[in-house]
Specification:
- 2 copies of one chain form a homodimer.
- The N and C termini of chain A lie far apart (54 Å).
- By secondary structure, the first copy, chain A, is α/β, with parallel strands linked by helices.
- The first copy, chain A, has 8 helices and 12 strands.
- Chain A has a 5-stranded mixed beta sheet, sandwiched between helices. A 4-stranded parallel beta sheet of chain A has the order 1-4-2-3, sandwiched between helices. A 3-stranded mixed beta sheet of chain A has the order 5-12-11.
- Chain A is 33% helix and 20% strand.
- Chain A is elongated and about 55 Å long.
- The interface between A and B is large, with 90 and 90 residues.
- Strand 6 of chain A pairs antiparallel with strand 6 of chain B, so a sheet runs across the interface.
């Protein structure tokens, strides 16, 4: 299971390239297959649409059990709202044993979408942070709401995955409202669309106006904590070095 | 500011390699300079010890203001408990303008230590998760404690950075105790030391026994949520596909 990184070829690791090269069969959503580019030329390809995660996992496991070397690809990292848990859930349900005699599974981590988005914004994640998906397709909304409230109340930086989709349009506004109970309307919010892919957008809003931002399934939204600040067109969450050492340091400089 | 990834050369992205190659000056902690290997041969090197983050940031900014192309390197991702916020804090304190005429800053994201550790464990992060550093050098312990309690209470997977250091030995046990108020003693806990570096260790404990695990500043500890399970020697947090679609899917298979 290979994480390709967020987008263009340069975001892929050497390990991911090598693992793709070694694969006989490549399984993936068609957009991700495009990201893999000419690294997968000449290989057997099994592609599917976005909502068929379980089918993709099953196809990959089946081909691997036939003794073939299979690359199941995700964008970003395969373990963050991606394919690796789906494969393990399936392996468990089918009672397949893990190991060299049965099924060997290796995971090649990638640059996660959230760190790619953060790098474009500046340094928003730089203190304790929480990642929350707003998709209630597999998770009850009450659980998501509780997590939003807890994370906001404890002053975590909050990264929202899957803020909105075609059939799911109110969760994003509701999430900002919950976070707004704990944080000022001027809290900076970074909104990154299609990080490191064609059509990339990077914007910073105030929390009070962030509900108006255009978001979709390829958008990452990062809400600063109570110490986050804007610096020019960047969003920064300080670790606190200047608070603790700043005076001394400035003193040394005169 | 370049993220080298967690360890061995294969975990570095193409973008990171290219950015290192383009740099005239490389600034970094000496362990990270070793990770960069022969990519930095022949360049001016400014190295420092671990606790001198502010000195490293200042040296990088100073060299960049002289008009040189500077690579400030971090292991993992530069924005997760690493150098990029320190640089921005310094830039803010010194009133330096960001932009092509003054100081241009670009961040090259890397595979974060937490995703590398997760990939070695299986798929522990695969639902909503929170990252918390146990270092109270710059953050009051009461803030950390509140975050541990909130994250555990809302059933986040929890990744602990910096669990223990030479001068800081009780926070890790205390953190597990706080989490244990909300989660069963049999909750699986992944403990990964030196992920993807020489001396790597990967272990899974029960929460009730995890306090006895050996941990240090290069250890990542990942505590599962209430649905996480062990599968052979792996730790998995399900996304819930088998719950929702499993019966139908098994039905299709007969």
């Amino acid at each position: 299971m290979i994480g390709l990184g967020p987008g263009r070829a340069g975001t892929m690791t050497g390990d991911a390239r090598a693992a793709l090269a070694a694969a006989e069969v490549v399984v993936g959503y068609k957009t991700y297959l495009a990201l893999a580019g000419d690294l997968i030329e000449g290989k057997e390809i099994i592609s599917s649409t976005m909502t068929k995660e379980l089918d993709r996992a099953a196809a990959a496991v089946e081909a691997a059990l036939e003794g073939r070397t299979v690359a199941l690809i995700s964008s970003g990292d395969p373990g963050i709202y991606a394919m690796s848990p789906v494969v393990f859930e399936l392996i468990k349900a089918q009672g397949i044993d893990l190991g060299p005699k049965d099924l060997e599974v290796e995971i090649v981590p990638g640059v996660a979408a959230v760190t790619a988005a953060a790098s474009l914004l500046g340094a928003p994640l730089s203190h304790d942070f929480a990642c929350i998906s707003l998709s209630d397709r597999l998770t009850p909304w009450e659980v998501i709401e509780k997590r939003l409230d807890a994370a906001a109340g404890a002053d975590f930086v909050i990264a929202l995955y899957n803020p909105k989709s075609r059939g799911r349009d109110w969760q994003y506004g509701k999430a900002l409202e919950i976070i707004g109970r704990h944080r000022g309307t001027d809290t900076p919010v970074g909104v990154v669309g299609r990080a490191m892919r064609e059509g990339q957008t990077v914007r910073i809003h105030d929390l009070g106006a962030a509900a108006q931002a255009e978001v979709d399934m390829q958008t990452l939204v990062i809400i600063g904590n109570s110490n986050s600040f804007r610096l020019g067109d960047r969003l920064v969450t300080p670790r606190g070095y200047m608070n603790k050492y700043g005076n001394k340091w400035q003193g040394e400089e005169g």
